[in-house]
Amino acid sequence: MRAWTDAELRRFDAASSLRLSAGSEGDDSVELGMVTVGQDLFIRAFSGVRSRWFQAAVGSGVGTIQVDGRLISVRFQPSAGDDRRIEAAYRERYGAAAALVGTAGARAATLLITANPER
Question: Of 1, 2, 24, 100, whose CB is crowded by the most CB atoms within 10 A?
Answer without folding.
Answer: 100
